[in-house]
Design a protein that fits this description.
Elements lengths: L2 H11 L18 E4 L3 H14 L1 E5 L4 E4 L9 E13 L9 E3 L4 E10 L2 E6 L3 E3 L2 E5 L2 E3 L2 E4 L3 E3 L4 E5 L2 E3 L2 E2 L6 E3 L2 E5 L2 E3 L2 E2 L6 E3 L2 E5 L2 E3 L2 E2 L9 E3 L6 E5 L2 E3 L2 E2 L6 E3 L3 E5 L2 E3 L19
Parallel strand pairs: 1-2, 2-4, 3-4, 4-6, 5-8, 6-9, 6-10, 7-11, 8-12, 9-13, 10-14, 11-15, 12-16, 13-17, 14-18, 15-19, 16-20, 17-21, 18-22, 19-23, 20-24, 21-25, 22-26, 23-27, 24-28, 25-29, 26-30
Length: 293
C-alpha cells in the first residue's frame, strides 16, 4: 500500500476528526474555556488551566502559529482541537510544541501538532514526563535528537489512539515516537518517519504495546541505522508487544529493516512483519520469535 493510500486510510480511521467540529461530548460550562485564534490566548489559557485544570476548546480550524514556546502542562488538562493546528513558525527558534510535566495529565484530541523542534533533547512535537493521551490527532513534521514526534520519559504513561504519526524525524532514535516509560499505540498509523540510528517509526526502551496499528514506510537511514519500523533496545526490561498489527515496507541501512531487538523481548501476536528492507527481523542481536527472514 503506498503512502498516500495509507494516509487516507489512517485519516479515515480517525473519522476525519481533525476536520470535524460536530458530535463532541458535552462538557460542563464551568470547566470549559474557549480559546480564540491567537497564540497569546492559547498560552494564557494553558497558564490559567495549570492552576485548577479544565478543558480548552480551540477555535475550529485555527492555525496557532507559535513564535515562542507554550507553558508546560502542569495539571489535568484536556485540549479539544476541533481541527486546529498548533505549529512552530518556521522562522522561530527551535522549541517543541507541548511539554507535559511530571505533575501534568494532558488529553489531546482532534488536533494537529506540527513543526516542533527539540534539537538537543527529545520529544519534538510532545515531550511527556507525566501522563499523555493523544486521540484522533495528527502529529507531523516534528524533529528532535531523540523521539521526533512524541517522546515518553522514564516513569511516564503515554497513550495514542486513532491517530496518525507522520513525517517526523530524529537525529538518533525514534523518528516517529519513542518510549522510556509505558506507551500504548492503538488503531493508529506510524508512517513515513525517519531516524538516523534506531527505530525509524518507533523506538522503545520501556514497555510498549501496539495493537491494531500500521507501522509502514519508515526508515533508519544513517550509517548505523537499524530497525526501520520498530527498535526495542536497552536490555532485558525493554518489552514490545504487537497485536493484530502490521510492520511493513520499512527500510534500514543495516539489517533488520522491520523489527530490531537488542536484549529485550518482542512478542508478535497475529502481527505481520513483511516486505521490509533489507530483512524483516533477521540480523537482530536478539531473536524475534515468529518473525520470518
Amino acid at each position: 500500500m503506498n503512502r498516500s493510500k495509507l494516509a487516507i486510510r489512517a485519516l479515515g480511521a480517525l473519522g476525519a476528526a481533525a476536520l470535524m467540529v460536530t458530535g463532541l461530548a458535552a462538557t460542563p460550562a464551568a470547566a470549559r474555556t474557549f480559546v480564540p485564534c491567537t497564540t497569546d490566548a492559547l498560552a494564557s489559557a494553558i497558564t490559567d488551566a495549570n492552576t485548577s485544570g479544565g478543558t480548552l476548546a480551540l477555535a475550529p480550524g485555527c492555525i496557532y502559529d507559535l513564535t515562542t514556546p507554550l507553558p508546560s502542562i502542569q495539571n489535568t488538562i484536556t485540549i479539544k482541537g476541533h481541527g486546529a493546528t498548533i505549529t512552530r513558525d518556521p522562522a522561530a527558534p527551535a522549541f517543541r510544541i507541548l511539554m507535559v510535566d511530571s505533575t501534568g495529565n494532558l488529553s489531546l484530541c482532534e488536533a494537529i501538532i506540527a513543526n516542533g523542534d527539540a534539537t538537543g533533547d527529545f520529544g519534538g512535537g510532545i515531550r511527556n514526563d507525566g501522563t499523555l493521551t493523544v486521540s484522533r490527532s495528527l502529529i507531523r513534521d516534528n524533529h528532535a535528537d531523540l523521539y521526533g514526534g512524541i517522546g515518553g520519559a522514564t516513569g511516564s504513561t503515554t497513550s495514542v489512539d486513532h491517530s496518525l504519526i507522520s513525517g517526523n524525524s530524529a537525529l538518533h532514535n525514534g523518528g516517529g515516537l519513542g518510549n522510556d516509560g509505558d506507551m500504548t499505540i492503538d488503531k493508529s498509523a506510524v508512517v513515513n518517519n525517519n531516524a538516523l540510528e534506531l527505530g525509524g517509526g518507533v523506538a522503545n526502551d520501556g514497555t510498549l504495546n501496539v495493537s491494531r496499528s500500521d507501522v509502514v514506510d519508515n526508515s533508519a537511514s544513517g550509517p548505523t541505522g537499524a530497525g526501520g519500523g520498530i527498535a526495542n533496545f536497552g536490555g532485558a526490561d525493554a518489552t514490545t508487544t504487537l497485536t493484530r498489527s502490521k510492520v511493513a515496507s520499512n527500510f534500514a541501512t543495516n539489517a533488520p529493516g522491520g523489527v530490531y531487538n537488542d536484549g529485550g523481548s518482542v512478542t508478535l501476536d497475529f502481527t505481520a512483519v513483511l516486505a521490509n528492507n533489507p530483512t524483516n527481523c533477521f540480523g537482530s542481536p536478539t531473536a524475534v520469535p515468529g518473525c520470518v527472514a
